[in-house]
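Example record used in the benchmark description.
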Amino acid sequence: MAEDWAAIAAEIDEAIRSVGDLSQPNGYPVTLRIPGATTGPIYDPVEGPPVYKTLHCVEGYQEIRDQAGTLIGQTKHSLTVSAKPDVVPLKSYRVALGITGDEASEASQWIEIAEVRPLSPAGVAVLYDIDLVD
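Model output (structure tokens):
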């Protein structure tokens, strides 16, 4: 019998909400800023309004070591976010922490995404690990 990976992704979303931030009963929100569609001529493109999508995350920080195992004084800021069928984070996108898509605006504090690693058994994403540029 085949696994229902969409149902598993929904379970993971619920789990991330439950452990993401105990001070917020519905989890720790993160808003993904998806750039708008580009229109107009190639010599004068016009970017449409961005789309804001709410995900929920577990936030983490990791000290970085060199090949010898010595701490190098840098920290990697990462998010483990829930996967939703209509939301796929990409390196070219930005995120705002602690706010929902309804609260987001261009004035929000946006952080660039450095890397995205999906966990996608059988080709269906169930969560994403996102590294941020700080």
